[in-house]
Each structure stands twice: as C-alpha cells, then as structure tokens.
Amino acid sequence: MNTALVSALSALAGSVVGGLTSGATTWLSHRYQAKAGYRLHNLTQREDLYRDFVVAASETYGSSMVNSEPQIHEVVVLYGMISRMRILSNPCVVECAEQTVNSIIDAYFAPKKSLLDMRELMLTGRAIDPLKNFSETSRAELSVL
Predict the structure, then answer these.
(1) Is the pTM of the predicted complex or chain greater than 0.90?
(2) In 3D, which of 57, 48, 142, 40 has the Cα closest to residue 92?
(3) CA 20, CA 112: separation in Å to the nearest integer?
(4) pLDDT digits (tens, 9 = 90+) for 102-122
(5) Ranges under pLDDT 70 in the chain
(6) For 40-109, what is the HEC assignment?
(7) Is 67 inside any structural domain?
(8) Domain range for 74
C-alpha cells in the first residue's frame, strides 16, 4: 500500500472518530441538562403546591377552630390541591393531605375553643397540629428528589 494512502485513511478515520465523540458528548450533555431542568421544574412545582396547601389548610383550620359553619369554598380549594397532588406526588403525600383535610372538617364539628383553651392546649403539649404528618411526609419526598 502507498504510504500516502495509509496516511490519508488514518487522518480520515481520526476525523470521523473525533467528530462522533464530539457529537456524542454534546448529545449526552444536552440530555443531562434537559433531565436536570425537568427535575428542577418538578421540584419547584411540588414545593409551590405544598406551600400553597399548607397556607390554605392553616387558614381553614384556624377558621374551623372558631366557626361551626364550614366554609365550603375553602374546603373545595383544598380538595383541588389534593387532586393536583395526585398527579405530581407520591400516594403517601396524598394520603397525608386527605387526612389533614378530614381532620380540618372534623374540627368544624368539634366544640369551639377560645384563645385561652388553645393556649392551655399548647402549654400542656396537647395542641393539635393537623399539618404535622403532611409536612414531614412532604419534606421527606422533596429531600429524595
């Protein structure tokens, strides 16, 4: 074989290998960035949903402590958030959210508490925190992501 032909084929093969390596590296890099972007978007979406649920559930629970008439609009908003959680979250988070809403609804039908009663419950450590399990489960799920 002619040495010039071998040199030319070697150069061509080196260019092909170099081009394929560069292309594969670029493709893998873009793929990794896309996955990272999706994970970040998913995490942010869940954080926002959980924050909104905690705020709405806290307000509804506060209302249930002093009112005996359920605010249907507030409860429906909570159930709407739970439905969004069914799409985005693990079943254990959804279950905790449902338990939270059920305990809030039960609080509407429980005897109403005065500020003095609530203070006494807090001082004795018997205060009811309907969001505790939901908060802990949500934090655990978000830390995994």
Answers:
(1) no
(2) 142
(3) 72
(4) 999 888 888 877 778 778 877
(5) 1, 125-127
(6) HHHHHHHHHHHHHHHHHHHHHHHHHHHCCCCCHHHHHHHHHHHHHHHHHCCHHHHHHHHHHHHHHHHHHH
(7) yes
(8) 40-144
- Is 14 within the bounds of a domain? no
* CB 53 within 8 Å of CB 85: yes
Quick one: tokens of 78?
Answer: 């909570």
Q: Which residue has the tokens 């092909």?
A: 16
User: Could you tell me if residue 13 is inside a domain?
Assistant: no
HSE toward the beta carbon, residue 138, CA cutoff 13 A: 24
Tell me, what's the pLDDT at 125? Answer: 67
Q: Sign of torsion, CA 99 130 74 96?
A: negative
pLDDT of residue 32: 86
Predicted local confidence at residue 68, as pLDDT? 79
- Structure tokens that stand for 133 in this block: 């399990």
- Give the total number of structural domains in the chain: 1
